[in-house]
Amino acid sequence: MTWNETSPPLASMLPNTRYFELESSTVGGSFGVWVTVPPRYESEPTARYPAIYLPDGNLMAPLTAPHTMMIRDDPINPIQPHIQVCVGYVGPDVDRQLAVRARDLLPPGEPLLPTTSAESLNLLVEAGLLDADAAKLYLHNLQNPAADKFLAFLVEELHPLITAEFRIDDASTGLFGYSYGGLFAIYAALQRTIFSKVGAGSPGIIGFESKVFQLYDSEAKKDSDYSDRMLHITVNETEITRVSAYQAYVGVGTAEFITHAGKKPLRGHVLSSHIIPAQSHATGNTSSWFSFLRQCYSQESPEMEIMRQG
Protein backbone atom coordinates (compact mmCIF):
# COMPACT_ATOMS: atom_id res chain seq x y z
CA MET A 1 0.00 0.00 0.00
CA THR A 2 1.28 3.48 -0.89
CA TRP A 3 0.07 6.96 -0.13
CA ASN A 4 0.70 10.22 -1.96
CA GLU A 5 1.06 13.70 -0.57
CA THR A 6 -1.01 16.20 -2.57
CA SER A 7 -2.38 19.73 -2.29
CA PRO A 8 -6.14 19.26 -1.87
CA PRO A 9 -8.64 21.73 -3.33
CA LEU A 10 -10.10 24.30 -0.95
CA ALA A 11 -13.56 22.71 -1.22
CA SER A 12 -12.28 19.48 0.33
CA MET A 13 -11.56 21.35 3.57
CA LEU A 14 -13.90 24.36 3.55
CA PRO A 15 -17.23 23.56 1.89
CA ASN A 16 -19.04 26.39 0.07
CA THR A 17 -15.95 28.58 0.31
CA ARG A 18 -14.26 30.71 -2.35
CA TYR A 19 -10.86 32.35 -1.96
CA PHE A 20 -9.71 35.75 -3.23
CA GLU A 21 -6.57 37.87 -2.95
CA LEU A 22 -6.38 41.64 -3.25
CA GLU A 23 -4.11 44.61 -2.69
CA SER A 24 -5.31 47.41 -0.43
CA SER A 25 -4.28 50.91 -1.44
CA THR A 26 -5.50 52.17 1.93
CA VAL A 27 -3.46 49.77 4.07
CA GLY A 28 -0.60 49.32 1.64
CA GLY A 29 -0.67 45.54 2.00
CA SER A 30 -2.09 42.35 0.52
CA PHE A 31 -4.90 40.24 1.94
CA GLY A 32 -6.43 36.83 1.45
CA VAL A 33 -10.21 36.57 1.75
CA TRP A 34 -12.19 33.37 2.36
CA VAL A 35 -15.91 33.78 1.61
CA THR A 36 -18.23 31.02 2.83
CA VAL A 37 -21.88 30.98 1.80
CA PRO A 38 -24.69 29.05 3.56
CA PRO A 39 -25.45 25.54 2.28
CA ARG A 40 -28.65 26.44 0.38
CA TYR A 41 -27.19 29.56 -1.23
CA GLU A 42 -27.43 28.19 -4.79
CA SER A 43 -30.90 26.68 -4.37
CA GLU A 44 -32.36 29.92 -2.97
CA PRO A 45 -31.42 32.36 -5.77
CA THR A 46 -33.52 35.26 -4.49
CA ALA A 47 -32.43 35.11 -0.85
CA ARG A 48 -30.01 37.68 0.58
CA TYR A 49 -27.82 37.17 3.61
CA PRO A 50 -25.96 39.35 6.10
CA ALA A 51 -22.19 39.40 5.72
CA ILE A 52 -20.09 38.83 8.84
CA TYR A 53 -16.43 39.82 8.67
CA LEU A 54 -13.67 38.13 10.68
CA PRO A 55 -10.04 39.33 10.80
CA ASP A 56 -7.28 36.77 11.45
CA GLY A 57 -8.75 34.84 8.54
CA ASN A 58 -5.85 32.36 8.21
CA LEU A 59 -6.89 30.99 11.59
CA MET A 60 -10.61 31.77 11.72
CA ALA A 61 -11.57 30.37 8.30
CA PRO A 62 -10.57 26.76 9.05
CA LEU A 63 -11.88 27.01 12.62
CA THR A 64 -15.32 28.41 11.85
CA ALA A 65 -16.27 28.05 8.17
CA PRO A 66 -17.00 24.28 8.24
CA HIS A 67 -19.71 24.84 10.84
CA THR A 68 -21.84 26.85 8.41
CA MET A 69 -23.05 23.50 7.10
CA MET A 70 -24.76 22.71 10.40
CA ILE A 71 -25.61 25.79 12.45
CA ARG A 72 -28.54 26.89 10.29
CA ASP A 73 -30.42 23.65 10.96
CA ASP A 74 -29.29 23.13 14.55
CA PRO A 75 -32.52 22.13 16.37
CA ILE A 76 -31.24 23.58 19.66
CA ASN A 77 -29.49 26.84 18.70
CA PRO A 78 -30.30 27.58 15.03
CA ILE A 79 -28.35 30.49 13.59
CA GLN A 80 -29.54 32.87 10.91
CA PRO A 81 -27.86 31.93 7.61
CA HIS A 82 -25.11 34.37 6.73
CA ILE A 83 -22.11 34.89 4.47
CA GLN A 84 -18.85 34.61 6.37
CA VAL A 85 -15.94 36.76 5.18
CA CYS A 86 -12.60 35.86 6.76
CA VAL A 87 -9.78 38.31 6.07
CA GLY A 88 -6.18 37.19 6.47
CA TYR A 89 -2.73 37.45 4.97
CA VAL A 90 -0.85 36.17 1.93
CA GLY A 91 2.76 35.62 0.86
CA PRO A 92 5.49 36.35 3.44
CA ASP A 93 2.92 37.96 5.76
CA VAL A 94 1.49 34.50 6.50
CA ASP A 95 4.65 33.50 8.38
CA ARG A 96 4.83 36.83 10.21
CA GLN A 97 1.12 37.49 10.70
CA LEU A 98 1.63 37.84 14.45
CA ALA A 99 3.63 40.97 13.61
CA VAL A 100 1.51 42.22 10.71
CA ARG A 101 -1.84 41.97 12.48
CA ALA A 102 -0.65 44.47 15.10
CA ARG A 103 -0.62 47.05 12.30
CA ASP A 104 -4.23 46.32 11.37
CA LEU A 105 -5.97 45.56 14.65
CA LEU A 106 -4.72 48.10 17.19
CA PRO A 107 -6.31 51.57 17.27
CA PRO A 108 -4.05 54.51 16.39
CA GLY A 109 -2.20 55.68 19.49
CA GLU A 110 -2.97 52.49 21.44
CA PRO A 111 -0.57 52.34 24.41
CA LEU A 112 1.94 49.53 24.66
CA LEU A 113 1.78 46.94 27.38
CA PRO A 114 4.23 47.83 30.17
CA THR A 115 6.19 44.67 29.43
CA THR A 116 6.62 45.36 25.71
CA SER A 117 10.21 45.94 24.57
CA ALA A 118 12.69 44.70 22.01
CA GLU A 119 14.04 42.34 24.66
CA SER A 120 10.62 40.88 25.44
CA LEU A 121 9.87 40.31 21.75
CA ASN A 122 13.13 38.42 21.43
CA LEU A 123 11.45 35.73 23.51
CA LEU A 124 9.17 35.11 20.52
CA VAL A 125 12.27 34.60 18.39
CA GLU A 126 13.71 32.15 20.91
CA ALA A 127 10.38 30.29 20.92
CA GLY A 128 10.49 30.00 17.14
CA LEU A 129 7.31 32.06 16.62
CA LEU A 130 9.03 34.88 14.73
CA ASP A 131 12.40 35.48 13.15
CA ALA A 132 14.50 38.49 14.12
CA ASP A 133 13.22 40.71 11.28
CA ALA A 134 9.59 39.87 12.04
CA ALA A 135 10.15 40.69 15.72
CA LYS A 136 11.43 44.13 14.72
CA LEU A 137 8.39 44.57 12.48
CA TYR A 138 6.12 43.53 15.36
CA LEU A 139 7.59 46.19 17.64
CA HIS A 140 7.30 48.80 14.87
CA ASN A 141 3.64 47.95 14.28
CA LEU A 142 2.87 47.98 18.00
CA GLN A 143 4.33 51.47 18.12
CA ASN A 144 2.58 52.60 14.92
CA PRO A 145 -0.78 50.81 14.72
CA ALA A 146 -3.29 51.69 12.00
CA ALA A 147 -6.64 50.06 12.71
CA ASP A 148 -8.28 53.10 11.10
CA LYS A 149 -6.76 52.12 7.75
CA PHE A 150 -7.75 48.47 8.11
CA LEU A 151 -11.31 49.51 8.99
CA ALA A 152 -11.41 51.76 5.92
CA PHE A 153 -10.17 48.82 3.82
CA LEU A 154 -13.01 46.60 5.07
CA VAL A 155 -15.70 49.24 4.60
CA GLU A 156 -14.59 51.11 1.50
CA GLU A 157 -12.60 48.56 -0.50
CA LEU A 158 -13.63 45.02 0.44
CA HIS A 159 -17.33 45.35 1.24
CA PRO A 160 -18.24 46.83 -2.18
CA LEU A 161 -16.51 43.86 -3.83
CA ILE A 162 -18.41 41.42 -1.61
CA THR A 163 -21.77 43.07 -2.32
CA ALA A 164 -21.06 43.03 -6.06
CA GLU A 165 -20.20 39.31 -6.09
CA PHE A 166 -22.62 37.88 -3.49
CA ARG A 167 -26.24 38.43 -2.49
CA ILE A 168 -25.82 40.59 0.61
CA ASP A 169 -28.47 41.94 2.98
CA ASP A 170 -26.90 45.12 4.36
CA ALA A 171 -29.45 45.47 7.18
CA SER A 172 -27.33 43.59 9.73
CA THR A 173 -23.70 43.48 8.65
CA GLY A 174 -21.53 41.91 11.33
CA LEU A 175 -17.96 41.90 12.58
CA PHE A 176 -16.27 39.48 14.96
CA GLY A 177 -12.73 39.62 16.27
CA TYR A 178 -10.74 37.78 18.91
CA SER A 179 -7.84 38.99 21.11
CA TYR A 180 -6.38 42.02 19.31
CA GLY A 181 -9.18 41.33 16.84
CA GLY A 182 -11.60 41.82 19.73
CA LEU A 183 -10.01 45.18 20.51
CA PHE A 184 -10.39 46.08 16.83
CA ALA A 185 -14.04 44.99 16.94
CA ILE A 186 -14.82 47.35 19.82
CA TYR A 187 -12.93 50.15 18.08
CA ALA A 188 -14.96 49.53 14.90
CA ALA A 189 -18.24 49.31 16.83
CA LEU A 190 -17.68 52.83 18.17
CA GLN A 191 -17.12 54.24 14.66
CA ARG A 192 -20.73 53.57 13.60
CA THR A 193 -19.83 52.28 10.14
CA ILE A 194 -21.58 49.46 8.26
CA PHE A 195 -21.16 47.06 11.18
CA SER A 196 -24.32 46.99 13.28
CA LYS A 197 -23.71 43.66 15.05
CA VAL A 198 -20.26 43.31 16.57
CA GLY A 199 -18.65 40.55 18.62
CA ALA A 200 -15.46 41.08 20.63
CA GLY A 201 -13.86 37.94 22.05
CA SER A 202 -11.25 38.37 24.81
CA PRO A 203 -10.29 41.86 23.60
CA GLY A 204 -6.74 42.98 24.37
CA ILE A 205 -7.81 46.03 26.38
CA ILE A 206 -5.37 47.76 28.69
CA GLY A 207 -7.48 48.81 31.65
CA PHE A 208 -8.56 52.47 31.42
CA GLU A 209 -5.62 53.23 29.12
CA SER A 210 -6.85 51.74 25.87
CA LYS A 211 -8.06 54.20 23.24
CA VAL A 212 -11.48 52.54 23.24
CA PHE A 213 -12.23 54.10 26.64
CA GLN A 214 -11.59 57.57 25.24
CA LEU A 215 -13.58 56.80 22.12
CA TYR A 216 -16.48 55.45 24.17
CA ASP A 217 -16.57 58.52 26.40
CA SER A 218 -16.49 60.79 23.35
CA GLU A 219 -19.49 59.00 21.86
CA ALA A 220 -21.35 59.15 25.17
CA LYS A 221 -20.65 62.87 25.54
CA LYS A 222 -21.95 63.54 22.01
CA ASP A 223 -25.09 61.50 22.83
CA SER A 224 -24.60 59.61 19.58
CA ASP A 225 -27.49 57.47 18.41
CA TYR A 226 -26.65 53.75 18.53
CA SER A 227 -30.15 52.43 17.85
CA ASP A 228 -30.24 49.00 16.19
CA ARG A 229 -26.58 48.40 17.08
CA MET A 230 -25.31 45.53 19.19
CA LEU A 231 -21.97 44.76 20.86
CA HIS A 232 -21.41 41.36 22.43
CA ILE A 233 -18.25 40.92 24.52
CA THR A 234 -16.92 37.61 25.78
CA VAL A 235 -14.03 36.72 28.05
CA ASN A 236 -12.70 33.27 28.92
CA GLU A 237 -13.10 31.99 32.47
CA THR A 238 -9.41 31.30 33.04
CA GLU A 239 -8.47 34.77 31.81
CA ILE A 240 -10.20 35.99 34.97
CA THR A 241 -9.53 33.20 37.46
CA ARG A 242 -5.95 32.09 36.69
CA VAL A 243 -2.90 34.21 37.41
CA SER A 244 -1.23 34.94 34.07
CA ALA A 245 -0.47 37.80 31.71
CA TYR A 246 -3.97 37.32 30.26
CA GLN A 247 -5.53 38.00 33.63
CA ALA A 248 -3.84 41.39 33.83
CA TYR A 249 -4.15 42.44 30.19
CA VAL A 250 -7.33 40.75 28.97
CA GLY A 251 -9.51 39.75 31.93
CA VAL A 252 -9.11 42.97 33.91
CA GLY A 253 -9.32 45.29 30.91
CA THR A 254 -12.41 43.55 29.53
CA ALA A 255 -14.18 43.66 32.88
CA GLU A 256 -13.34 47.34 33.26
CA PHE A 257 -14.70 48.16 29.80
CA ILE A 258 -17.95 46.24 30.38
CA THR A 259 -18.40 47.97 33.75
CA HIS A 260 -17.56 51.38 32.31
CA ALA A 261 -20.01 50.98 29.42
CA GLY A 262 -22.70 49.63 31.71
CA LYS A 263 -22.56 52.70 33.94
CA LYS A 264 -23.19 55.11 31.07
CA PRO A 265 -24.85 53.29 28.18
CA LEU A 266 -24.87 54.76 24.70
CA ARG A 267 -28.29 55.84 23.45
CA GLY A 268 -30.10 52.92 21.84
CA HIS A 269 -27.09 50.61 22.11
CA VAL A 270 -27.49 46.95 23.10
CA LEU A 271 -24.48 45.74 25.08
CA SER A 272 -24.22 42.12 26.21
CA SER A 273 -21.45 40.00 27.68
CA HIS A 274 -20.70 36.39 28.54
CA ILE A 275 -17.99 34.41 30.31
CA ILE A 276 -16.88 31.34 28.32
CA PRO A 277 -16.55 28.47 30.84
CA ALA A 278 -13.24 26.59 31.22
CA GLN A 279 -11.55 28.05 28.12
CA SER A 280 -8.20 29.82 27.95
CA HIS A 281 -7.03 32.54 25.59
CA ALA A 282 -5.51 29.92 23.31
CA THR A 283 -8.67 27.81 23.02
CA GLY A 284 -11.61 30.17 23.46
CA ASN A 285 -11.91 31.75 20.02
CA THR A 286 -14.45 29.35 18.46
CA SER A 287 -16.58 29.34 21.63
CA SER A 288 -16.55 33.14 21.59
CA TRP A 289 -17.59 33.12 17.93
CA PHE A 290 -20.57 30.88 18.61
CA SER A 291 -21.57 32.97 21.62
CA PHE A 292 -21.64 36.01 19.33
CA LEU A 293 -23.75 34.18 16.73
CA ARG A 294 -26.25 32.97 19.32
CA GLN A 295 -26.58 36.46 20.80
CA CYS A 296 -26.78 38.47 17.58
CA TYR A 297 -27.90 36.10 14.80
CA SER A 298 -30.09 33.50 16.46
CA GLN A 299 -33.34 32.38 14.89
CA GLU A 300 -36.23 30.29 16.14
CA SER A 301 -35.99 26.57 15.51
CA PRO A 302 -38.85 24.92 13.53
CA GLU A 303 -39.81 22.94 16.63
CA MET A 304 -40.10 26.08 18.77
CA GLU A 305 -42.06 27.89 16.07
CA ILE A 306 -44.58 25.03 15.93
CA MET A 307 -44.92 25.10 19.73
CA ARG A 308 -45.33 28.87 19.74
CA GLN A 309 -48.05 28.79 17.08
CA GLY A 310 -49.80 26.06 19.02
TrEMBL record:
| Cleavable signal peptide | none
Q: Which InterPro entries match?
A: AB_hydrolase_fold, Esterase-like, Siderophore_Hydrolase_D
Which keywords fit this entry according to its UniProt record? Hydrolase
In terms of domain of life, where is this protein from? Answer: Bacteria
Q: Does the keyword Hydrolase apply?
A: yes
Tell me one GO molecular function of this protein.
Answer: hydrolase activity, acting on ester bonds
Annotated family: Belongs to the esterase D family.
Record-linked PANTHER family: SIDEROPHORE TRIACETYLFUSARININE C ESTERASE, SIDEROPHORE-DEGRADING ESTERASE (EUROFUNG)
Q: What is this protein called?
A: Alpha/beta hydrolase
